[in-house]
Amino acid sequence: MSELSITDLSKDLRSAIENLESSKNLDEVGVVVRVGDGVVWIHGLRNAGYNEVVNIETAEGVVEAFALNLMEDEIGAVLLGEDSAVKAGQSVRLKGTVLQVPVGPELLGRVVNPLGQAIDGGPAIVTKLMGDVEREAIGVMGRKSVHEPLMTGIMSIDAMFPIGRGQRELIIGDRQTGKTALAIDTMINQAKQDTGVVNVYVAIGQKFSKIARLVERLKQEGVMDQTIIVATSPSDPASLLYLAPYAGTAMGEYFRDNAQHALMIYDDLTKHAVAYRQMSLLLRRPPGREAYPGDVFYLHSRLLERSAKLSDELGAGSLTALPIIETQAGDISAYIPTNVISITDGQIFLETDLFYQGIRPAISAGLSVSRVGGAAQTSAVKSVSGNLKLGLSQFRELASFAQFGSDLDESTKHQIDRGQRLTELLKQPQYQPSSVWQQVVSIAAVTNGYFDTVPAAQIKDAQAALTTKLWSAHKADMTELDKGGKPTPEMIKLIETVARSAAKGFEG
Amino acid sequence: MAGRLSRRRLATYIADGLVSGTPSKKTLIEQLAAYLIETRRTKELGLIVRDVEYHLAEKGHLTATITSAFDLNNETLQAIESFVKDKTKAPNVSLTTLVDPTVLGGVKISLPGRENDQTIAHQLTVLKTRFKKV
């Protein structure tokens, strides 16, 4: 008897499902009312959801858009392509999904647009999985505190403002101060140090000629195989510029969720905010400060909150973010810079003055900070860079003060001399990231006074001599030091001996 | 004059009136026309009519437009009518036929807010898009 009831129930359920599915033969349709500037207004589609994709049937084929304004009488949707083919009166259908992009290892080494379509001239990308472009950030219990280092290979960053895996560290500065260069060096270092970190570079409104140069460089450095580039040009519709960082993050999240580590670079979020402002104004949302819409903070906070270090239960993967913001005349108190500063876990501020003085990377020691990276710094670098930041900040203060007179006491003179040597030491050419042992021995040689007899102008030569001698004569020790452990007293003694001997050749 | 009424509210009022019969159809039309002129919204008439159709369909009074490349025979129209009744559960279905050679072949059934497009022109558009993507 009971068996018969179950069979009946099963039949009823199947029939109910079939009845419900059969109503799918009727698609929900709306009609285009107005179109212009990449925004389309649709009448109908009452069941459309926020961010849902709609298909507009044009003579040239189906054009996709996504719904952003859900109002009582009409829907405002942003086109994902050219609006020239879209005309009033055309039919619009709900796709039934939110925006998705292809994700997976198949994307490595490729340049794609924010829809995941190849734009590098290579074959079409076929992935097994698709990822939601907009996705809720991982919850509190799914996270772990940042504790593993993400070495940038840039001595001043790794020593003074260390970045951990899962951290969000803002790179901020005026135009032409080396913001992108820092990000690219960090990407290169992941390949040179064989960290296994996957790079996702999101170019927002960048010239394609610049992207082409970047791809070429990354190929030369052997980094492209572990890199995905999501590129948009200034001629792309604002909708694509708006989507680019979210699409890139979806691609990075695949690696994070599969117990791997990924590095996101958003170059840059200023252009992203401008694209969103354009869309919002065209959607007739009320403008606020600097004409940005009221939710411009949420625009970036929901993006950057997706970067995280996952708990061991979720595989311990990580997604690190290096957003870039361009300031005007060094003003970090403008609207978008302050927003992103308050969202991120620290910032690296690049100063124009330092850049033109030849101090490159032009990192401002006083205005830069890493709020969570200290816990992730390698013991080796931490042991030698204790008060490097304070010393350098004090030196820059003293140096500007010392310009007014020469009556300085011995300790001040000593501090200025040490600061000049440090400044010289921290200068680093582009595309030449340093490994952990190189950073440790170089910083130790200056901060411990082994190079006190070397004139500031010759510090880089002395540093080169020191690293060459150590690598040729003590390769095993340096390989051990490169693992990141705290150097033993014997190791420090060895560095001192070799550094003092190297300094002799450069005494002033 | 009160604040601006949404098209949805206007359509609900008209549809309710048409179904209940009070006020009369003539009065409803005059009221709506006067309101649209007063608020300078006569351009929205087409959209309001669509909304009224939508609300009438919700109340079981459904008008379906059948578009085909050639005239359809009575049997086919009856089959379409029973299909529409089956899918929408609307007791009152009226069909309007439209011959449009540009659809090339097949049938398009347009209901308020819903559609079943089985025309060759639609299939070709979908095919063209897929080909473009590849």
Could you characterize what this model shows?
The complex is a heterodimer of chains A (508) and B (134). Chain A has 508 residues and is of the alpha/beta class. Chain A contains 16 helices and 16 strands. An 8-stranded mixed beta sheet of chain A has the order 8-12-11-13-14-10-15-16, sandwiched between helices. In chain A, strands 1-2-5-4-3-6 form a 6-stranded antiparallel beta barrel. Chain A is elongated. The mean pLDDT of chain A is 92. Chain B is α+β, with helices and mostly antiparallel strands. Chain B is built from 5 helices and 4 strands, in the order αααβαβββα. Chain B has helices at residues 7-20, 25-38, 45-58, 74-88, 120-133, and strands at residues 61-68, 92-99, 107-111, 114-117. In chain B, strands 2-1-3-4 form a 4-stranded mixed beta sheet. In chain B, a hairpin with a 2-residue loop joins strand 3 (107-111) and strand 4 (114-117). In chain B, helix 1 runs antiparallel to helix 2 (25-38) and helix 1 crosses helix 3. Chain B is globular. The N and C termini of chain B lie far apart (56 Å). The mean pLDDT of chain B is 90. The chains are: A alpha/beta (508), B alpha+beta (134).
In short:
The complex is a heterodimer of chains A (508) and B (134). Chain A has helices spanning 2-22, 155-160, 179-192, 208-220, 238-257, 269-282, 296-304, 335-343, 352-356, 379-384, 388-402, 410-426, 436-447, 459-473, 475-482, 489-504, and strands at residues 27-36, 39-44, 52-58, 61-70, 75-79, 91-98, 100-103, 111-112, 129-132, 170-173, 198-203, 227-231, 261-267, 318-326, 346-350, 369-370.
- The low-pLDDT segments of chain B are none
The main sheet of chain A comes to: 8 strands, mixed
Q: Cα distance, first to last residue of chain A? A: 103 Å
The largest beta-sheet of chain A arranges its strands as: 8-12-11-13-14-10-15-16
Task: Give the strand tally of chain B.
Answer: 4
What's the gyration radius of chain B in Å? 18 Å
Assembly category: heterodimer
Class by alpha and beta content of chain A: alpha/beta
**C-alpha end-to-end distance of chain B:** 56 Å
The amount of helix of chain B comes to 40-55%
Mean pLDDT of chain B: 90
Strand order of the largest sheet of chain B: 2-1-3-4
